[in-house]
Amino acid sequence: MTANSYQDPLDSAFGDEQKVPAREPAYLSGLNKEQREAVEATEGPVLVLAGAGTGKTRVLTTRLAHILATHKAWPGQILAVTFTNKAAREMKERIGTLIGGVVEGMQWLGTFHSIGARMLRRHAELAGLKSNFTIIDADDQLRLMKQIVEAENIDEKRWPSRTLAAMIDGWKNRGLRPEDVPDGEAHGFAFGKGRTLYKLYQARLKALNAADFGDLLLDTLSLLRGHPDILADYRDRFRYILVDEYQDTNVVQYLWLKLLAGTGGNVCVVGDDDQSIYAWRGAEVENILRFERDFPGAKVIRLERNYRSTPSILGAASGLIAANKGRLGKTLWTEGEPGEKIKVQGVWDAEEEARHVASDAEALHREGHSFAQMAILVRASFQMREFEDRFIALGLPYRVIGGPRFYERAEIRDAMAYLRLVAQGDDDLAFERIVNKPKRGIGDASVQALHQFARARQVPLLAAAREIVETDELPPKAKKALAELAANFARWGDTSRVLPHTELAEMILDESGYTDMLKADKSADAPGRLDNLKELVRSMEQFESLAAFLEHVALVMELEQNETGDRLNLMTMHAAKGLEYDTVFLPGWEEGLFPSQRTMDENGLAGLEEERRLAYVGITRAKQRALISFAANRRVHGSWQSALPSRFITELPEEHVETTVDEGFYGGNAGFRDNMSGFASSYDSPGWKRAQANKERGYTRARPPLIEAQAFTVQTSDPSATQYARGDRVFHQKFGYGRVKAVEGNKLTVDFDKAGEKKVIDTFVTRA
Ligand code: ATP
Ligand code: MG
Known about the structure:
Elements: H1 10-19, H2 26-29, H3 33-40, E1 46-49, H4 56-69, E2 78-81, H5 85-99, E3 109-110, H6 112-122, E4 134-135, H7 138-151, H8 161-173, H9 183-186, H10 194-207, E5 210-211, H11 213-226, H12 228-237, E6 240-243, H13 251-261, E7 267-271, H14 286-289, H15 291-294, E8 299-301, H16 311-321, E9 342-349, H17 350-366, E10 374-378, H18 384-394, E11 398-400, H19 410-423, H20 428-434, H21 444-457, H22 461-468, H23 476-496, H24 501-511, H25 514-520, H26 526-540, H27 546-555, E12 568-572, E13 581-586, H28 597-619, E14 622-636, E15 639-642, H29 647-651, E16 657-661, H30 670-675, H31 687-697, E17 729-732, E18 736-744, E19 747-752, E20 756-761, E21 765-767
Parallel strand pairs: 1-7, 1-8, 2-3, 2-6, 4-5, 6-7, 9-14, 9-16, 10-12, 10-13, 11-12, 13-14
Antiparallel strand pairs: 14-15, 17-18, 17-21, 18-19, 19-20
Helix pairs in contact: 3-4, 4-5, 6-11, 7-8, 7-10, 11-13, 16-28, 17-18, 19-20, 21-22, 22-23, 23-24
Bound molecules: adenosine-5'-triphosphate and magnesium ion.
């Protein structure tokens, strides 16, 4: 392919080393025996199966450096898969420091999705796309799905497009194209229309010159399967394949990899079955377990020494994960002093929890610990708001990693829609988004007329707009506005070829009237949105072209702002995979929240075990200290609910744990003591004392009611609240129709027609 003209930057950097072959490269000397073995076994299949913090990622990075340093391959001949784009960047930097100099040309280092996108762009026509296809996100995906469901005259209320989207994603994750979907499953939506809708959706995507995230993998798989010459080309190109976090690959990723690697390829995967936490997205831990069968003669290397955490942290995490049945089991040890015990803190509610975490973080900071080395890991993203509020109130610097994403804000998405449409005039989704934003008098009826016009002529909306304004199909006002918009896009398109893309973006925001709209907006958040748009333009500076920027936004949904500086890190536990911090706060360890009731209802024991692996991932992010907390009261969907401490807390080995419960916290609640026999502190003072104390301290926010008698006996909500009774017919998005067999609080036992008997929460069903 294109490798011929490549100049090896390592030649200069390594010229000296090469002349002294006896000297061991510095990058190897820090490794233990097994790690070194994994680095040096470059030929043939290798599996590194090892627990958290044992250096798997380090091995992978060093192996990459080793391959380059020993000239076994050029950077462009290595396929390296990381779990996030951030991890890819870090790996690149790390290789640079290991072998000196900048490593250029690692085009195939990235996530499955970014690598898939790169491949698909090179062969877009073969997948029915143009190479400048748009990558759409979940939001656009849903809008498209909705249109299709409505066009097919399917009752959206009964068959929500969200469900269809989840089904299609699931099929894509399993490598199934419409024609591959098993009959039984295809019938699961809208009386057998599942497959047809999937097909229509795909056709619509192609017509829009767009791909969703699933397509980035499925289309590339089809490409390799359908074109032996292309497959041969890539097999030849990729001399070495490396994959991090292999336990979380899904079927389509697995099939794609296997195809590229062949049976005897130089493929090295690293992972930990105890850290498989993406089953809900189609990940199959079996992939790692069957590696040896798929790649006969594979070398299996186990790493047992943990370099990350203190013995206390490792002991606590190992004790917890031991409760899982389905696991391979591994030995893990670490050196050094036991270190601080895991702190478990009981608090009144989420507000107080945030206050605790913030003051602990400040105290540590005063002792000289940096904020950047502290992370708050939550189970559900709604938990973040309370922390953000607190940090803002105190002026504590923080960043959200992978969280409420900058690029997902409405004004950013609007601006992006303008830019996408300039780059790619077929992008109907973008067109629809901004056609009347800001309001320019193009109403729904006019948009519908435009749609019909476009369909009849089989042209994209923007092209149709240009034509329709020559007719009398639209009312004069709409016609004028649309003509102006189309003319603007034509001009912006021309300008984009000469003006730097940042200036183009500013121009578009001004000329479209978008900036003025926000300036005229008197609502409190309008100034913030203007700031966000400025931030957007700033963030474009790092990219050489508009296309490069759009690609980045489509793929890198990680928050780019506030990346630098000494800040607290806030993220979900899922987003924390592979990362490490000196101090880790783990709030919200309550039954129902963590482990998540929903996961348990839907997947039973398997769901619970996945939640426990998530807890294991959370704790093992900590190097020095881990602080777990749970609140007695939590506001869920607007109503106060009392909660029990998570069972995971009781599963932590007592010797590694130190528990504190706030004074006045547990109003003599016996149930709690029975459940939490390991707890040492006093929780005898009545709850009202706590409220009293709060009042004295001036906390005025409305507090949850003190229900002494009921506290901790109710798991997630008021038992009298359920509206269902035995015998009711209900519908559940996942399980379909069924009849209520028993009611226990807000938990229903339902005998589903197809799925059999399941326990579900009442809020997840509707009356049928
Ligand atoms: P996870 O399962 O969480 O992804 P991992 O197995 O990938 O963990 P790494 O992140 O590679 O582990 O390593 C954990 C920490 O241990 C890192 O800070 C790494 O630099 C350090 N480490 C790994 N190997 C060694 C070693 N031989 N000597 C010193 N430190 C090491
Ligand atoms: Mg790792």
